[in-house]
Amino acid sequence: MMHKIPVGVLGASGYAGRELCGLVLAHPSLSLAFAAAGARGGERARVAGRDITFANSDAVDLGQAALVFSALPHGASAEYVARARAAGAKVVDLSADLRPGNANPAGAEGVPYGLTEVAREAVRAADVVANPGCYPTATLLALLPLLERKLVAPGGTISVSAASGVTGAGFTPRHDLLFGEVSEDFRAYGAGNVHRHLGEMRATLDAFAAEADLVFTPHLLPVARGILATITVPLVERVENPLALWEERFAREPFVEVTSELPTLKDVVRRNVVRVTAMHAQGTRRPTLVVIAAIDNLVKGAAGQAVQNANLMLGLDETAGLAA
Amino acid sequence: MMHKIPVGVLGASGYAGRELCGLVLAHPSLSLAFAAAGARGGERARVAGRDITFANSDAVDLGQAALVFSALPHGASAEYVARARAAGAKVVDLSADLRPGNANPAGAEGVPYGLTEVAREAVRAADVVANPGCYPTATLLALLPLLERKLVAPGGTISVSAASGVTGAGFTPRHDLLFGEVSEDFRAYGAGNVHRHLGEMRATLDAFAAEADLVFTPHLLPVARGILATITVPLVERVENPLALWEERFAREPFVEVTSELPTLKDVVRRNVVRVTAMHAQGTRRPTLVVIAAIDNLVKGAAGQAVQNANLMLGLDETAGLAA
Amino acid sequence: MMHKIPVGVLGASGYAGRELCGLVLAHPSLSLAFAAAGARGGERARVAGRDITFANSDAVDLGQAALVFSALPHGASAEYVARARAAGAKVVDLSADLRPGNANPAGAEGVPYGLTEVAREAVRAADVVANPGCYPTATLLALLPLLERKLVAPGGTISVSAASGVTGAGFTPRHDLLFGEVSEDFRAYGAGNVHRHLGEMRATLDAFAAEADLVFTPHLLPVARGILATITVPLVERVENPLALWEERFAREPFVEVTSELPTLKDVVRRNVVRVTAMHAQGTRRPTLVVIAAIDNLVKGAAGQAVQNANLMLGLDETAGLAA
Amino acid sequence: MMHKIPVGVLGASGYAGRELCGLVLAHPSLSLAFAAAGARGGERARVAGRDITFANSDAVDLGQAALVFSALPHGASAEYVARARAAGAKVVDLSADLRPGNANPAGAEGVPYGLTEVAREAVRAADVVANPGCYPTATLLALLPLLERKLVAPGGTISVSAASGVTGAGFTPRHDLLFGEVSEDFRAYGAGNVHRHLGEMRATLDAFAAEADLVFTPHLLPVARGILATITVPLVERVENPLALWEERFAREPFVEVTSELPTLKDVVRRNVVRVTAMHAQGTRRPTLVVIAAIDNLVKGAAGQAVQNANLMLGLDETAGLAA
Questions:
Q1: Is there a catalytic annotation at residue D21?
Q2: Do residues A67 and A313 lie in contact, with contact meaning Cβ atoms separated by under 8 Å?
Q3: Which among A166, A281, C44, D98 could bridge A288 via Cys, Cβ 3.0 to 4.6 Å?
Q4: What are the φ/ψ torsions at residue C50 (nearest 5 degrees)?
Q5: Are strands B5-10 and A288-295 parallel, antiparallel or unpaired?
Q6: DSSP annotation string for C106-163
Q7: Is residue A183 less than 8 Å (CB to CB) from chain C?
Q8: Is there a contact between D49 and A184 if contact means CB atoms under 8 Å apart?
Q9: Which pLDDT band holds residue D2 (cuts at 50, 70, 90)?
Q10: What 3-state DSSP class applies to A77?
């Protein structure tokens, strides 16, 4: 049997952590050295049809892993990233701690922002990668062709209305996440540009010198998984065939599906893909695109993209264990 | 016992039609003269805890009703509106047939567009009223204070991302409305400004001479009822306390709730209200508001507003049978 | 304006407590003297379209209410029942504390088990009533005609498979009640006859000298509200027209709907009714009935039945505030 | 690259048919020769992240497949089974047409009833197999240890209360399967022992000479996938450790999970397993077991079991393409 590379998961009891464990268990070249959880250390859980037992985050030997995924909460993760590095492991950090636009505008020094399709080579060379947030993954990949070609109208407003399944809010019990509250409901949250993910989205827009306003309104959907981002973007000038921009940019990307249909959550759940379409808004004075992107918040928006980055950092095929 | 005014319902077997029957049955001053359904004439249905039997649309004597609600499909309704008028009944038409922006830009002549909070006096005097669509009701009431005060930036883009429960798509069986397809999914439809409701929204913007682009993207939610509209609006100038505009405008409106909280579907289902908030988007170059409104698509977005209009047309208290 | 009788609610922040507040606020003859909640005292909540503020359970003057509803947790309620009695208030206790089959086989002395359709006169005369559990309400009303007529086969097994919406599990945040866990799932719990409600169901069977085994398996449904109980009952002898037994027994009951259709949750949610049908199981050696009953666990299974009992205790019409 | 065996799917546009296509496309030793659909021939569909185009059922060359899966409707399937046989293909028929208890008590001659764990060797030798129904698969595998050991009390009543996700009702649009009708609802159907699946369940009970009554009540769950069967069984005699009977019987079965936990739909969806537990009902006069089993109705209850049978018929490893 082939040798497998041992990797570990911190924060394994949350939704993203369990998704990571499942992906590692099914990965052809990775083995699960540990699945650590703070308060739930010692507990058993079913992951992908298997029973696993959580280790204690503070007791586990981080150095037994060649790479550690940290799915710890924001604020708590950076310390464990440092510990894992000190123990000799590479790290993919799924928290916001090292991303740009948070602690400092550019992100932690020497830590690439792991939007793989943008930063592939930096990720390959890195010891630590800051895995993007779920909303930024959908939004930024959707905007990428426009940003790279400087097609966003300066002074215009990019309006992002995005909706996420409840697993995006984590596994910690809260009144407002009970089935009896979420079912048959739909609501915005963090409206008025106060959501934590604004920072990393603006940092990327700035990196492309897009001088547009960004208005981002997330919503809570009565579904378990998935993000749909619906984006209106005013253009510098009318583009004849807008979808061709996406088709061309992503032609060789294994995890981006460009489509003339409207993407839905069903198309993407449990898959490491972003599915995107774009079209003109009819009947407007100023040329304006509607861009719609769907991802699974736990896969392409978290654990899947983390494995995609880890594959690069470990010298494996980028698509290993991530059948699209 | 008090005399009740007989009213009839055409298209009673659909979701809006059944909601109308329920409201009429519970109304203190109205009685249900008939509930007619085309293909399902003769069938029984449970409405609001009662068994009713649908009459045949073509066999029913329209003149027995002082007012007829038509919840017939778009395209089929106008003919029955004419028949009901010929039989001497007033009419509230819930279809798009007589609304502005459809057959002709201004709507059918002499038929007010029954957004009650805008057209109250015209409705009171009318024999026929075109009841607004569900999305336009939420969107236009949300925008009303800005439109009336000319605060929308000329040349800017009003971006409306709205999501509706499946009853908005009607009761006709379709693959894409099956529980197995809708559950755990979320999708846009009519994207790119091709939804039927664009016409009546633009007509109202034009009536207020708002020279802004409108981009409207509706979505299908895995819930039975409710619409949430999330709107970004660039302003002519910064407004100190935006919510005060709504509080002032709607202070005496019985069916508009202005709130500093984010409205949710749960707040409004089974109630004839629009619930709305507004706030600045932080960190933008151009002053921009986020306005969020919630309604029940079948009540304030259809049957409830229809009864509100009918109350006015019949000289009853506007709120009769519509406890907020 | 008519004088209203002041009543209070303890445990007002839970699902049953909030339902009680809503019913009291809409009741023609009751007023809400207080809505008290322990840990959430001082918090605001929206109930039935109104904002209410919870009082502190220990600070509230129980004597200002003519009757107190206790929706406190099992174990914590009995003490407050005593306090309310000492303050001069009548009490409807929604907890299990005073029901038969719990602390003692017969229930608390002098406290009728308030299954209204069985104990109407005792309830009318009582100062304290033990409001039945949600599952027992559905199950026992469904079985009542068979129990009263001694039609259950001695030595046979009454098999009750019942499923409840999540509000039956309360408002306390728990991992297993999160939307992400409940959605698209279905599971039994308390299987093997270990559910708390067994006691009061067996006590009632014993009261009717039914010498049959009872096997009760509850399930958690991915819905907010409603209980459906599906019951198989072996009979002493074949009955010609089983449904007639229910029709006859409940002919004058305002809150029992006997139907030849299969009851569904949709038929009963937000209504104070039990809806029931019965039929023979075809092709069996021993005559066996299938009896199916549906209730709203928060209304007929909790707050509605509590108001029904309170109406009797306060000399009001039994149906006041409970439009079926 | 390894040679793959061509197989075809009839009735590919329904839920079971699409599930079959997905399993075949991911199978290491099978290739999809055709996916035929009657009315939807020529249409495209997304299956397991791929776009496939349906062939026309009547135009397709059945002989190009070594084995044909028929997921055609009951009544329509038998004819195509005969055609496929005439063309030289083996057949797994997912319809009820050839199962025992339907056309004739014993089923079609020479066609084993493919409950794989019972009929493995007969399936291996067969050219045509009648794939069991979804409810019977869950129910009969749950009862198997009791049936084989003659532990069911003669004259007793096996009460089966089972609930299925909506995909069990098929992909044909019906009012009662719309999201707006199913969401927040739960209902029994086919109550009183009139469900089509009674025949094949009774035929299997008869084959084991179990002289017990069977009462089977199916229910429609507001979930897409999964069946949970809750069964009460009176025993001939008390059994010390009931779960050991299942553990022993299924110790070497790759697709049966025996557990001391209560199985849930989440444990089994998208997996080819039945998950089962058993325990005594406490406090009964007669020893009575509660047995609970969960399956995915589309996998172990249809397409997965069909592939399991096909693997045997084609000389492949029984578990190929069916990672538990």
A1: no
A2: yes
A3: A281
A4: -125, 150
A5: unpaired
A6: T-STT--B--HHHHHHHHHH-SEEEPPPHHHHHHHHHHHHHHHTT-BPTT-EEEEEEE
A7: yes
A8: no
A9: low
A10: helix
In tens, the pLDDT along B121-146 reads 999 999 999 999 999 999 999 999 99
> Whole-angstrom Cα distance, residue C224 to residue A66?
46
Q: Which of D276, D232, D231 is nearest to D250 (CA)?
A: D276
User: Which residues from C are below 8 Å from D235, CB to CB?
Assistant: none
Q: D70 phi and psi, to 5 degrees? A: -105, 115
pLDDT in the model for residue C50: 84
Residues 6-35 of D with CB under 8 A from B: 15
Structure-block tokens of residue A110: 């020497």
Residue whose tokens read 């664009």: B198
With a cut of 0.90, is the ipTM above it?
A: yes
Q: Is B193:A282 a contact under the CB 8 Å cutoff?
A: yes
- Residue C281 Cα, gap to closest chain D Cα (Å): 4
**C222/D290 Cβ within 8 A:** no
- To the nearest whole Å, the CA of D26 is away from the closest chain B CA by 22
C-facing residues of B in 44-73 (CB < 8 A) are 46, 49
Interface touch A184/B284, C-beta < 8 Å? no
Three-state secondary structure readout of chain D: CCCCEEEEEECCCCHHHHHHHHHHHCCCCEEEEEEEECCCCCCEEEECCEEEECEECCCCCHHHCCEEEECCCCCCHHHHHHHHHHCCCEEEECCCCCCCCCCCCCCCCCCCECCHHHHHHHHHHCCEEECCCHHHHHHHHHHHHHHHCCCECCCCEEEEEEEECHHHHCCCCCHHHEHHHHCCCCEECCCCCCCCCHHHHHHHHHHCCCCCEEEEEEEECCCCCCEEEEEEEEECCCCCCHHHHHHHHCCCCCCEEECCCCCEHHHHCCCCCEEEEEEECCCCCCCEEEEEEEECCCHHHHHHHHHHHHHHHCCCCCCCCCCC
Listed residue (C135, C115, C20) closest to C67, CA to CA: C20
Residue C122 has pLDDT above 60, yes or no: yes
CB of A45 closer than 8 Å to CB of A103: no
Residues 6+ apart with CB under 8 A from A63: A87, A88, A89
Q: What is the pLDDT of residue B282?
A: 97
How far is it, in rounded angstroms, from Cα B311 to Cα B319?
Answer: 7
Q: Which residues of A touch D273 (CB under 8 A)?
A: 49
CB-closest option in A178, A183, A184 to C173: A178
Q: Is A263 on the interface with B (CB under 8 A)?
A: yes
Q: Which residues of C touch B49 (CB under 8 A)?
A: 267, 271, 273, 324
pLDDT digits (tens, 9 = 90+) for A188-229: 999 999 999 999 999 999 999 999 999 999 999 999 999 999
In D, minimum Cα distance to B165 occurs at: D180
Q: Which of B7, B52, B98, B134 is catalytic?
A: B134
Residue among D26, D96, D91 at smallest CA distance from D63: D91
Query: Exactly one of C9, C126, C134, C233 is catalytic; which is it?
Result: C134
- Closest Cα to residue A285, out of B208, B117, B157? B157
8 A C-beta contact, residue C243 and residue C278:
yes
